[in-house]
Amino acid sequence: MSNSSSETCIQLPEHMYQKGVKHLCENGVTQVPKKYILSEPERPHNLVVGSCIDLPVIDFAQLQGNDRPAVLRSLAKACQEYGFFQLTNHGITNDVVGKMIDVSKRFFELPFEERQRYMSSNLYAPVRYGTSFNQNNDGVFCWRDFLKLSCYPMQDFAILASLGVMEEDKAILDDANQLTMVNCYPSCPQPQLTLGLPPHSDYGLLTLLLQDQVEGLQIQHKGRWLTVKPIPNSLVVNIGDQFEIFSNGRYKSVVHRVAVNSMSSRLSVATLFSLPVNHNVRPSPELIDESNPRRYRDTNYADFLEFLSSSDFKCKKFLELRKLR
Ligand SMILES: O=C(O)CCC(=O)C(=O)O
Ligand SMILES: [Fe+2]
């Protein structure tokens, strides 16, 4: 397959892209339109040779038992080294996990006219069907459609115990926001030219990700892109920017991206847990001392949204801007 040059690649009217990738595919697009083609250095080069990793696995059932101290140590190590881990035995039954994936797939299989009812340009709409990352702003579009759902927040955070912070700091979790992004990455005729999601870190505290059995998530580790091997019925958990700040840099919000493939469509359900819009996040006082001074300035979600609408969404720039020098 050739690396299509600008002379041969297709261009469609802008309103076609705004309707989403699935809609394009349903309308018989067999080549990646120019709108989605990344510049040469930004393209995924390790689609074929990309190494697959087994992320550290945390067994949630063991966390509740006698081995808790050892499991908390493994959890801390995973958050420091990878910023990611897979969670097994999380208590959500396989039946519920299967139904979540199934109902999500069925949404994207609805006729376009049905899906379109949920489209909105308002970033705060509680239910929103959209495409790319930020379709109002993206220069190059990514090969993803999504359904965003505002949810009732979860409550239990063993991860705070792994950092060793005390009760009062758990107040950070009061009034938190929970957003669920159901991501659909349709199969792509030229996956070497585009990405399902560009390199980014997640803005919130934590992200829990349920994925089907199709590989695609890649994390940056020691300068390489590593593909996460899905474990059936498990959740991938990753540290977000707010948690990196709260932990004063002990835990890492790691850059990741999504590669697409020509064989099958991929589905993931990402639940992003973050602080309320106007709540400031700052390093926990318990994690600051003379030898480990405060490393980040106060920040909130409104700052992040402003960053998103004002500049290109690239790598870790937001977190870099919050660092104290
Ligand atoms: O689909 C995936 O595997 C990752 C999704 C993701 O990174 C996100 O929604 O922030
Ligand atoms: Fe992400």
UniProtKB/TrEMBL annotation:
GO MF assignments: dioxygenase activity; metal ion binding; oxidoreductase activity, acting on paired donors, with incorporation or reduction of molecular oxygen
Keywords per UniProt: Dioxygenase, Iron, Metal-binding, Oxidoreductase
Protein name as catalogued: Non-heme dioxygenase N-terminal domain-containing protein
PROSITE patterns per record: FE2OG_OXY (PS51471)
Organism: Cynara cardunculus var. scolymus
Family: Belongs to the iron/ascorbate-dependent oxidoreductase family.
Domain (Fe2OG dioxygenase) ranges: 175-276
Keyword Iron: yes
